[in-house]
Design goal:
Layout: H1 3-14, H2 18-28, H3 35-46, H4 55-64, H5 69-93, H6 95-105, H7 111-134, H8 139-148, H9 153-178, H10 182-211
Amino acid sequence: MNREASYPATRALSRPGPLRRLYDWVLSWADSPRGTLGLAAISFAESSFFPIPPDVLQIALSVAKPRRSFFYAAVSAVASVAGGVFGWAIGSGLWQLLSSWFFAYVPGFSPEKFALVESLYRGNAFLAIFAAAFTPIPYKVFTIAAGACSVPLGTLVAASALGRGLRFFLVAAVTFFLGATARQFLDRYLELITVLLLVAIVAGFLAIKVLMPAH
């Protein structure tokens, strides 16, 4: 076997991919004195095009300073909803121009997913946006589709504020109470917890609708 020929393959296997490098770059903000600013910027960008969720940095910052966990959650939530408004504006005014770029280069976007979101908006736009804001569903697809599908901006803001707020404050609560062990717990169970809570919330809404008499 040619030993020299094996070196490039070995280096290729050990070299992290672009998403991993981006993930590491996001985490590097936790060691920066401008970590809060980085969290706000990443939360904003993730709502329309950035592939790494802000939870990653929020958890790292909160583990380092547990008493500021809920402050970081507020930063994530406010910036994320603002980014959702930006995504709505892209969908409302620029989607015809930018759609091919999003489908080609932004993770999470595809014509099939976009068509699925459009069908969900014909059912219940508020619930669809809330579900995307709260769970690991790609929230950015829903914010841009909301603008492209003429979902009222107020519906987007209200559903996003509820979903993003619940998600990021859930992360803050786990970090605050579990401390240094929170990162491993959230890495393993966050997606499952958010999905189960969403099911419980939807079940609660359905129960209210069934139990309350119609007028």
